[in-house]
Amino acid sequence: MSTRLLTDINYKYTFKYALWDYIKSIDKLEIHQVVNLAKIFGALMVKLLPLHFLKVIEFDEIDKATTLFVHLLLENILSASENEE
Description:
Blueprint: H1 3-24, H2 31-47, H3 64-84
Helix pairs in contact: 2-3
């Protein structure tokens, strides 16, 4: 296994956990930060991130900030998929 492949894997795990930390702390973010985070996630999920990336969201105890995030995320994913067609 090449060294480059190992570093790529390490970056992927680090990036995944950093994004999960942002999702877990959405209730502490300001509105514009939630909007920007949803835009970033939307762009990444269209091309790179699998849907199971959202497994850290507790949908049974969802707050307003997380609801806004999920709404904007899905809106960004759908609009990006419409643009590709």
